[in-house]
Amino acid sequence: MPDSTSTPLAPRVRFAPSPTGFLHVGSARTFIFNWLFARHNHGTMILRLDDTDVERNTDVSVRSIFDGLHWLGLNWDEEYKQSDRLALHQQAAQDLFAKGLAYRDFTPAHSGDDNQSSAQGAWLFNPGMRELSREESDRRAASGESFALRYRVPRGLKSGVARILSFVDGVYGAQSKAADEVEDFALLRSDGMPTYHLASCADDAALNISHIIRGQDHLTNTYKHLLIFEGLGATAPHFAHLPLLVAPDGAKLSKRKHGPVVSVTTYRDSGFLPAAFINFLCLLGWSPKNDLEFMPLEQIAALFTLEGVNRANAVVNFTDADPFDPKAVWLNAEHIRSLPVEKLASEIAPFFAEAGYNATPEKIAAITPLIRERIKLLREAIGAADFFFLEELAPYDPAELIPPKGGDAAMARRVLSHALEVLPAVTFDHDSLDKALREAAATLGLKAGPMFQPIRVAVCGRKNAPPLFETMTVLGRDVCLNRIRQAIEKLESLG
């Protein structure tokens, strides 16, 4: 019985996406868990593109998968394409046929699409094809008749010698099933192309894969794969199946049903940091022994084991109004605050460029520490800092210039007019501005709050803005004075 609980000194694991759509968050988690297992155990991480389904594979999907994986920033050690290995797959099929472990199925309805077979419910095998003599099978094949090649699953219930297929899953424990309950599954389709089962197992055997870590929806496929490995004379890898990711209503996360919310690139384009996204996905189905939530990648890799993977499906919480799980957003904010300013500035820069702002690296570096505590997603930097780049502030209500608690338009005008008198002679750095404006407040008989708010709104166009003196330093004297003059004009409109 293959046992998934043991770990060789140098495991070899693989991530094998099929390029039939964008990189699904569930697929990304599978890749991450394989990567963590390999790195934790000093093993080899393999990327294998399972692209033998030529009718569904697209170049756009291939690019999307690689875009998503490169964004995650997790490297792999070896890379393969199944379409380059067709000779290996077909040779494996011929070897199984030569051993009598496979037979030709000439039935049109069973041309190799296992979905057709399973849709019939009780269909397990076609006696007329399974028991066809080798001579008759060869004759019909030589005449050009189309056929699928099927595995001859052992049948023993009638003879009283039932074959039990079993393995120990690294997550779900001991698993077993009578071979009589497994259909004679296709190895080659009628066009000669290998099915998923054959191509995957032939490659896994040839690449010496030691552990197959994949989604729980593949658990039942494992019995078929055990038979193929046995038929090829290969040692079956250890298996570990990961719990599914589900929507709040318990439905499996689906590209068709849930749309962009399940695409990795949606998170990237909305301003998630790769480290935060990885951190979030790891907590969907895996629990470290220390119950931590915020963890850098190095710590996750050090802690990761299959024993920590849960059996229960993991819920991704989102709504139509808010597509992102609150925990994902919280983790992203934590990772943003943990980044060095220089690194965060480089992460924010593409969003300013995309928005069309002429943002120099120097200016972004100056702005970054002012907004780091104010954003949860990188894209929010635009809304938090747009006024640093605008020649003209967006329209705002002049009433916001009036200090609270007893202030009026006349008070706001006195504050801004006095600021215009004081600021031209002040050095524009934090300490100088702080000292000058506090002295100005004392001159006017005001506390700091009523003095600072009109100036903050005047230079930023909003009450909720980064620290005033650092903001004024970045904006510079000319911009601040010009905006204060415009604010005084707005107050004049109030009468």
Can you put this structure into words, describing what you see?
With 495 residues, the chain is mainly alpha-helical. The chain has 5 domains: 12-81 and 195-246, Rossmann fold, CATH 3.40.50; 87-188, Glutamyl-tRNA Synthetase, Domain 3 (Glutamyl-tRNA Synthetase, domain 3, Alpha-Beta Complex), CATH 3.90.800; 255-336, Glutamyl-tRNA Synthetase, domain 2; 339-388, Helicase, Ruva Protein, domain 3, CATH 1.10.8; 398-492, Arc Repressor Mutant, subunit A (Orthogonal Bundle). The protein is 45% helix and 10% strand. It has 21 helices and 12 strands. The chain has helices spanning 25-40, 59-72, 86-98, 114-119, 127-130, 134-142, 196-206, 221-231, 255-258, 264-270, 274-282, 297-303, 326-338, 341-354, 361-371, 380-385, 409-422, 430-444, 448-460, 468-475, 477-492, and strands at residues 12-15, 44-49, 78-81, 102-105, 148-151, 164-169, 173-178, 186-188, 211-215, 238-242, 245-246, 314-315. The strands form 5 sheets. It has a 3-stranded parallel β-sheet with strand order 1-2-3. The N and C termini lie far apart (87 Å). Mean pLDDT is 92; it is low at 115-121.
What's the SSE blueprint?
Elements: E1 12-15, H1 25-40, E2 44-49, H2 59-72, E3 78-81, H3 86-98, E4 102-105, H4 114-119, H5 127-130, H6 134-142, E5 148-151, E6 164-169, E7 173-178, E8 186-188, H7 196-206, E9 211-215, H8 221-231, E10 238-242, E11 245-246, H9 255-258, H10 264-270, H11 274-282, H12 297-303, E12 314-315, H13 326-338, H14 341-354, H15 361-371, H16 380-385, H17 409-422, H18 430-444, H19 448-460, H20 468-475, H21 477-492
Parallel strand pairs: 1-2, 2-3, 9-10, 11-12
Antiparallel strand pairs: 4-5, 5-8, 6-7
Helix pairs in contact: 1-12, 3-7, 7-8, 11-13, 14-15, 17-18, 17-19, 17-21, 18-19, 18-20, 19-20, 19-21
